Structure formats: structure tokens, C-alpha cells
Amino acid sequence: MTPLGALLIRDMRLAVRVGGGALIGVLFFLVVVTLVPFAIGPDLALLKRIGPAVLWLAALLANLLALDRLFAVDQEDGSLDLLLMSRAPLELVVAVKGLAHWLTTGLPLVVAAPLIGLLLNLDGAAQAGLVLTLLVGTPALTFIGLIGAAIAVALRRGGLLLAVLVLPLTVPVLIFGVAAANAVLVGAAPFATPFTVLCALSLASLVIGPFAAAAALRQEIE
Amino acid sequence: MSLIDLANPSRFLKFADRVLPWLGGVTVIALAFGLNQAMGAPDDYQQGATVKIMFLHVPSAWLGMLAWGIMSIAALGTLVWRHPLADVAAKAAAPIGAAFTLLCLITGSLWGRPEWGTYWVWDARLTSELVLFLLYLGVIALWRTVEDPSRAARAAAILTLVGAVDLPIIKFSVDWWNTLHQGESVFRFGGSTIYPTILVPLLVMAVAFTLLFVTLHVAAMRNEILRRRVRTLRLMQAQATN
Known about the structure:
The complex is a heterodimer of chains A (222) and B (242). Helices cover 81% and strands 0% of the residues of chain A. Chain A is elongated. Chain B has one domain. Helices cover 76% and strands 0% of the residues of chain B. Chain B contains seven helices and no strands. The mean pLDDT of chain B is 85. The interface between A and B is medium-sized, with 19 and 22 residues.
């Protein structure tokens, strides 16, 4: 097995076993969505109208909170040093860690979205649009968040600082994700335009994220 | 005197002390001249006197973006060339750029109230400008959370380069999306669409604001170097008393 493949499997195992926290993200997602009707009242028409936006926002926050510890755990047990010293390029190592993180926290959100969408009165077509946009957009959130996670571990800070640094960068993803999901729901605007821009954002962050995160991690050895 | 010579902080301090009075003087003259010209410019036939807000709004917007551009170049200086003054330049530029961006947002919303009937709309130009302001605050927060300046410098540099993606979005937002904010009218193919009686004072104000930025930036860099010296002296003093 190649080192990168081994790293992918290791990270996914750690995330789903006891002590990992992969499914807490889904739980958080559910809790946030449940809070919304309490805050704005159980008006089903209104909930349906803002449903995609609420789900996108909850997914964004769940993703962000899960990222906080992505590199910090490796730093505490020393495996980050091994990753930094390995012969595999650090950018690829970071990208693989991001992929493992997305598979264990981003993908469950996508899978859970239709179920949780029921709570907000979303039906067939709107559900499909939402799942499709989340499937394409959550990788962008993960890979933008990687930069913040790497900076946080290099500075030994996290929490609110990470959120303040990363959230402004995720604004375009949120805009186009919600625009595409709403296009299906309302049907007034075309779906393809915001959706393709969302794909482009994911691809761009797939390139920028690992390089910036690797540059931040390299400060660790200096 | 090249950029390498100024890498020595003592030389930079001497240089700053020499140029700052001149820069300050020229800035005051340019600002006075520009404001006078702006006041003398004719009112717009539709907007009336509110058109004069533009003489502050447009240069602040340019300077807010220019400051991030300078921070991005300084970030390259920190990460690639390890220029010792690069992170000082980046740190000093952040609050000034944030102030210009805030000024742009405030003047814009004061103009928007009578002209658009609202202080704020969520169109692409306004939103991307607000994101720029949030990015500035994020970078400033980063500088303020980490005690060791060199550690903070590299993290801030990475964040600055990533955030630079927002600059083209701001610039081209009026072309890419159908915004309430008017399209590009100064720098465009086929020449400016602004009448010279308004365009000339606007450009004078832009030069004056740029001079203001340079003055504030050099002064802030000088203060930052002095602040770091004080910090080092205090650390040495604390070690000596132990």
C-alpha cells in the first residue's frame, strides 16, 4: 500500500472509532436545524422557503467546528512530525487528510441532509437539489477550512480565531450553494449557472487549500 | 538607496525620519488642493450635491484594495525572500487598509440612502467589499492573538495571499453580476465615461489619498519597529531581574 493510501485509511479509522468524532458533526447539524423552528416559529411555508439556506449554514458550521482539531490531534501525539518528515510531498499529505476528513464528516452531512430536510418541509426536487449542491460544495468548505486548521495548529490557537479567519473565505461557496439550491426550490432562476460556479469553487479550493495549509504547517519545523 | 539597504531597521528608521515630514507636508497640500477642487466641482444634474461623497468614496475603495495588494506583496516578501521588513510592512498596512475600507463602506451607505433609498443592499460589489473588511479584521485579530511577531507574520502572510482572491472579485463584481452598484466608469476600454469637471478632482483626490496612505504606512512601520525594540528591551530587562 502506498503511504498516502495508508494515511487515508488511518485517518478514516481514527475518525470513526471511539475517540474520533466523525458523527458528532451530523449530530450538531441536526441540533442546529432543530433550533431554527424554535427561533422563528413552526410556519411550514416559511421554513420551506429558508430551508436550503438553513441547511447550508448548518453544514458550514458543522464542517468548521469539526476542522478545529484536524491537525491538532496529530500534533499532540507526535504523528504530525512524522508526516512532515515523510518523503511524500506535504501538499499531497494535507490533501489526503482533507479527503479523509471530508469522507468522514462532509459526506455524512450530505447523506443526512434529505432526512433533516424533511424537518424543514423540503420535498422531492428541492431535496435532490440540496443534496447535489451539498455534495459538490462541502469539499470546498473542507479544503478552505484546511488552511485555517493548519494556521491554528502552527500558532497553537483555535476556536473563535479559526472561525473568524475561515468564515469570510467561505462566503462565495455559501452564496452559490444556496443560490443553486434555491433555484430548484423556487424555479425562477437557472440552476446550472450557480451550480457550475460552485463546482469551480470546489476545484479551486482543492488546489489552493493544500498548498496554503502545507505552507502553514512547514512553520512547525522552523 | 535600494530595498535591500532599507532591510536594516536602523537605516529604515533614519530614512523614515528624513522623509516623513516631507511626505506629511505634500499630503496636506494635496489633500487641501483636492478637497478644494472637489468642493468647486459642479453638482450632478441628477444627484445634486451628494455626488461629492464620491470624491471620498472612490479613493477610499481604491486604497482599501491597494493596501491588501501591498500586504500580499509583503506576504511574498515574508514567505519567499524572508525580507526582514516585509512583515513589519504587512502588519502596519492592515489597520490602515481596514480604515479605508470602512470609510468606503460608510461613505457608500451615506450616498446610498438618498440615491438608492437604502443604506445597504446585498449586491456583489458591496458584499465583496464587506468581505474584504472582515478579512482585514481577521488578519488584525491574528496579529493580536499571537505574541511572537515572526510566528504571527508567516501565518498572516498565508492568510493574506489566500484572501487576495477577493481583490479581483471586488474589481470585476460589477462586470460579472448585474449589480445595483454602477459599473466601471474610470478605468475602462474606450476611456472614462466621467465628465472631466468631475474626473479631474477625483483623480487629484486619489493621488492625495495615496500620499496619505504612504505617509501613514511609513509612520506605522516606524512605530512597529520601535514597538518591537521596546518589547525586546523589556524581555531582556525581565530576564536580567530574574
